[in-house]
């Protein structure tokens, strides 16, 4: 049913785009015949918008990896730097939440460790929707923020780091076998505000895969049983992601980047002072509209990353697509 819905969506989109193209070309012809410059301008603006959608859907057609169409987990971890980095990690969580909401994805908070003064130490989001992993997998890496610190009484400029880890939800089509003897299970009380049921019982579950030292934690539900099931799903997903990266030539570099959340390992810089710019260091794509990016406008960066991986060339810009 999921494959059928995906095909229906693609076919309906093609039909709608063809109809929209025909309608706007007709409007331009009529506008030129009647010397209506306003109608021509409106139709040309609609065509530019349609062109951007076609460019995105062309790239979306490249999402043919084994798990690209699946839901995804997205983990955020604050780097060294205390409150500064924890606040930055919280900003990243909001950014990805806004992006997911804008694209009609469902979001669930699986785990969260609140920051000491602001933001978060870490968080895990479950993002559900078609091609969620395919679009978000390029966000995996270290993100750097430069700004005037709101926590510094002397208003000095600070640099903060946070890492993002993206791995797919494993469905029934992908089999991952795990020896239960290799997994250590710990139960604990959930974090968060006191007085709630989850804080009074040991409902949170943490699994440690001993051979790989992969750790997952879930405290989403009141039920320890359901949290345990979710944690096992997360562990399978992480082990699958690990196998995917083993097949890629850049696996060692990616793993090294995750172990050091700091200088020299970032994939994207967000500079708010002394100037405004967000720049992806892999593709070269940049924008001065930092507010829009931090509010979830990430499509240009995601499309460029996907195009670079697919074509091995400079990022595809909308104006270059005919």
% residues in beta strands: 15-25%
SSE order, one letter for each helix or strand: HHEHEEHEEEHEEHHEEEHH
Q: The CATH topology of the largest domain is what?
A: Alpha-Beta Plaits
Task: Tell me the distance between the termini.
Answer: 33 Å
Spatial strand sequence of the major β-sheet: 2-3-1-5-4-9-10-11
* Fraction of residues in helix: 40-55%
Number of separate strands? 11
How large is the radius of gyration?
A: 22 Å
Number of helices: 9
Structural class label:
alpha+beta
Major sheet attributes:
8 strands, mixed
Uncertain parts: 314-322
Q: Which CATH-level-2 architecture of the largest domain?
A: 2-Layer Sandwich
Q: Describe the global form.
A: globular
Mean of all residue-level pLDDT scores: 83
Structure notes:
It is a single chain. By secondary structure, this protein is an alpha+beta fold. It folds into three domains: about 1-60; about 70-170 and about 255-320, Alpha-Beta Plaits; about 180-245, Double Stranded RNA Binding Domain (2-Layer Sandwich), CATH 3.30.160.20. Helices cover about 40% and strands about 25% of the residues. The protein is built from nine helices and eleven strands. An eight-stranded mixed β-sheet has the order 2-3-1-5-4-9-10-11, with helices on both faces. Strand 7 (about 205-210) and strand 8 (about 215-220) form a beta hairpin. Helix 1 packs antiparallel against helix 2. It starts with a helix and ends in an 11-residue tail after the last helix.
